[in-house]
Amino acid sequence: MEWEQSRESTNIEDRRGEGGGGFSIGGGGGGLGIGAILVILAIGYFTGIDPRLLIGGAEILTGAGHNSAYRPPAQTAQTESVSQNDPMRRFVAKVLAQTEDVWTKVLPEQKGVRYVAPKLVLYSGATRSGCGQAQAAMGPFYCPNDQKVYLDMSFFNDMRTKYGGGGDFAYAYVVAHEIGHHVQDQLGILAKVDEAKAQVSRTQANALSVRVELMADCLAGVWAYNANQEYRILDPGDVEKAIATAQAIGDDRLQTAARGYSVPDSFTHGSSAARQKWLQTGLNSGQIDSCNTFKQ
Ligand SMILES: [Zn+2]
Q1: pLDDT value at 27 more than 70
Q2: Mean pLDDT computed over 142-148
């Protein structure tokens, strides 16, 4: 992925090294089995968006026999990463700038809605969010209450070392997926879905959550299409890597890894095949309207 030439966004709120005033569950990864780590990562990655989903994630963690390893917040080891100029921070700031450039143009053009860029909070371990305590183990998430994306960049390391993913474009896809939730928020979709979820069964509410997640995948694809038009960001193999990432974190894969079988009714983020399909849909069309995951 070509990203060096972009500007850096000024919408980064760097809270690394601050300490979050809470506990981090399994943040260090020490002593956890690979299965538990996979579950934490995969659940975390897509559950962070909605506090109710986080609760669901915690339930699954308990079910998987995961031992919570508590450690105090704000451990000293984090300070080394606080430099303004570290490469991953620059990368995230540049990808964020590309999402700003693309959505500032595309959202008014395609939907007649002005794009208000969200803040992206970098933190380490734990921090406060408008949706409750953010913890590294949750993975990246978007909080509609304060309209901020929360990212502990150790997630990228975990993707690479423990989760079979990695690569610039796969990381960019993670950021773009969260920004996709912000786009949904700007379009009023999150509020509508929340309202609908309050009136249906748990199973039906999960089905709605899946559609929200798949739409965010598709919107990440819309971003990538348009960013590529503008900046030629894509290198050969990038899309395949992002798709492999999307596939690796589908709920069916995740559940099968955790307990040996999958339970479609409990999917909240979509199967591997569905995630791949919707990311590809956005990537092919570049059109927000192609991402109507509620239609079918
Ligand atoms: Zn999501």
Answers
A1: no
A2: 93
Q: Kindly state the DSSP code that residue 267 receives in the 8-state scheme.
A: -
Give dist(CA 89, CA 95) in Å, integer: 10
Residue 93 burial by CB count (10 A; 0-12/13-18/19+): exposed, middle or buried? buried
Burial class (CB in 10 A: 0-12, 13-18, 19+), 289: exposed
Is-contact 210 274, C-beta < 8 A?
yes
Report CA(82)–ligand 1 centroid distance (Å). Answer: 26
Largest Cα separation within the chain, whole Å, is: 51
CA 224 to ligand 1 centroid distance, Å: 16
254 near 39, Cβ under 8 Å? yes
Q: Output the CA 221–ligand 1 centroid distance in Å.
A: 13
Judge if pTM exceeds 0.90: no
| Residue 224 reports pLDDT greater than 90 | yes
Residue 220 tokens, joined: 């990440």
Q: For the residues 40-65, what does the mean pLDDT come to?
A: 36
Residue 38 identity: L
